[in-house]
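pipeline/complex-builder :: batch 7 item 3
reading input block
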Amino acid sequence: MSTADTKPTSVQDSPQKHEAIVHAQPSTASKVSTFLSTYVFSKDHKVIGLQFLFSTLLWFLVGGLLALAVRWQVAWPWSDVPVVGKLFAQQGGQMSPEFYTMLFTMHATVMIFLVIIPILAGAFGNFLIPLMIGADDMAFPTLNMLSYWFMWPAFIAFGASFFVEGGAASSGWTSYPTLSTNVNSSPGAGWGQTLWLIGLTFVGVSSMLGSVNYMTTIILMRAPGMTMFRLPMTIWSMFITAVLQAFALPVLTAAGFMQLADRTIGTGFFTPEGNIVNNAVATAGGGQPLLWQHLFWFYSHPAVYIMILPAMGMVSDILTCFARKPLFGYRPMVYSVAGIAGLGFIVWGHHMFMSGMNPALGVTFMVSTMMIALPSAVKTFNWLGTIWGGKIQFTTSMLFALSFVSMFIIGGLSGIFMAATPVDIFIHDTYFIVAHFHYVLFAGTAMGVWAAIYFWFPKMFGRTMNEFWGKVHFFLTFIFLNGTFFTMHILGAVGFPRRLADAYHYETFHHLQPLNAFMTYCAMGMVATQIIFAINFFWSMFYGPIAGRNPWNSNTLEWTAPSPPGHGNFDFQPIVHRGPYEYSVPGIESDHLMQTDPPNPAATAAAGAAH
Amino acid sequence: MKRFAGLFWSLLFLAVPILGVITFAVAPAYDIWLPKDVSEHGAAVDGLFYFILWLTGAVFIVTEVALFWFIWKYDANNTKVEVQYRHGNHALEVVWTIIPAAVLLFLAIYQMNTWADVKMRRPNMAPTVEVIGRQFEWRLRYPGRDEVLGTPDDLHLVNDLHLPIDEDILIQLKSMDVLHSFFLPNVRIKQDAVPGMKIPVWFKAREEGVFDIVCAELCGWGHYKMKGRVTFESRERFEEWLEVKYQEQEATQESGT
């Protein structure tokens, strides 16, 4: 029996009705300004969330195509690029080495700053936080609107940088000085790099506005009865992510301004005395290139957790729903997220083991890095414990969530190799690290995001996505992603360096071209598979089956609201009576007990016995 | 159909550990594996790599097979067993926190000595050679006849590094312009070259041969071609080579003036 039927409903459960309510609001305003305030400069967290979702999915496409171009060059260096080759090549249809350098820089930049961080916090954080805690909106709706619109200067800066002289930034997404600070060092170190820094600053401002809002909303606006330890894992991880953002971001913003000053007014924070690049005049200097690396990674290492924790939270909720079983070890899960966040601030030096940093300092970072594997291990065991003894429903969302667990195991374990400093001497900056972070960020986070899209799509648009094509999308993505990324491990074991436009002239690496060609074929398949997803997504938005309030028989608060929810989200005041994971409670008829369901004696007795 | 769906998906997840192990098992046969090691400390680095590989490999297989087993066994369409209503297990949480913690701590302490040997216990000697990264070449500077670096009789070369085997080598690593990274895959050595810093790099080669010098830190558009070669040879042949190069340099200097 669907819970939707039992709710006191003042609004009927159809998207059309709902739109009517949204439109009915400002009666005096003209149609244009109504449209603008409803869909463009909206202060409604759901609209802002969807704006983030559409923008980031679009950039996901851009980032994916950049990746394909990178893969083309790695597999078949200096060969004519099909279809688009003529667009960018100065001569013939092949890419230049400086173009290749720009490609991987912008692939990483787009994927990290314009896709992963904003899709997790911006899209899902925005959409889910008020709904899952039972609030009518965010604490600061105007700040929330600004957090989206501050992304646009970043979109424009990064997008425009492709068209300026010298092309977009090409000193890697880490933007290490002096390659990035000295305008003579490479073609992309001109306007492209300046625009990159400006774009980065705006992304930071956007994240900070979001972060302040999420923290305040989660602390102050929970529905009656929603204690901190009744929050779903999605909200816990969003909350801790917001804390990480708030503490780490100012450092990156400051460092970005310092680099901008180095480039524009010659401050020399990151440039040593007498630095001569490309036979240009020596710089004044007085700075230290390693300073940037410390400041950059002080943000960007916590950012790695900003890029995975929300996905972990969402996957935890999806696993419990489709295993029809309470989350195994709720409190250990919360503590391990907090542990990851805390330790996340003292491991940044593991990116710098080979940087020339004091090797004794490397030892302390090695120990803290080893220890951060612990909470990740605890989480993995608890996910396995969650599906153990459940009743698994193989929805597309569940398959993506299960694959998140499977792939995160690989990404987590491969991290131990890099954490071991002596092993890192050999595999640092090789394809082993490329394999590692793609397993965490693509096979982990992106798979988690797909799980979340298939799961919450009914709440976003009132319709469910097609399950058959969803499974085809999952199956092909899963196969191709492993074909592309698993093989990178063994490539890294040879020492195959990353960021080389052509490595086959080295004796050590000359025989690796066939393997790289195989990986590129898989990457092409992976990108092509996303056409299925795109069609399914847009088709289902308009023609998918109507979902109802709670299509998955889930427990959390968002499923008590209409699909999609109108302004103010709930058509009744949700009151929370229990935690979010009461599935298959013995002694009651339904296999789930929603957080808002009135107290039930049988359930209380069962919960008492279980503890 | 529904009955087989669960089987299909669980087998897909079982394919992960199976194909994963096969990939690693087959790779060495195609020479897609650790390149030949000619250094003294390399065995310790590789040993640690294998140790972690076996350890993580075991965890990988156990967890992935458990995942497959649960997916296969607890398929809603096939299982008649009631869902086990439980919120966790304190004893299990303690066990799977303490055991990995102990293993990780052991791993952390176990590797410290190797790291200290390679990066912290610098031999007390004058530099054998100075290596300077520059877009996009490795500039080399041998001390010359007076055996002191930075004097007018230094020997200057590019990309062609020769070193004697079976003795301590101390390289003074510098960069002229941007970051580079001095990577000798066959010696298991990697060290970034940083503008404004002099970084010592030391090792001992055990075997003769000619190997790659790779730049492993992005240094600009020509990063991919910043390639050098290192030749390890006996002390006598090394000194002969040094003498030949020295005379070549003197000859060009004289003809130049």
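note: Chain B has two domains: 2-78+90-119, 125-256.
queue -> next item
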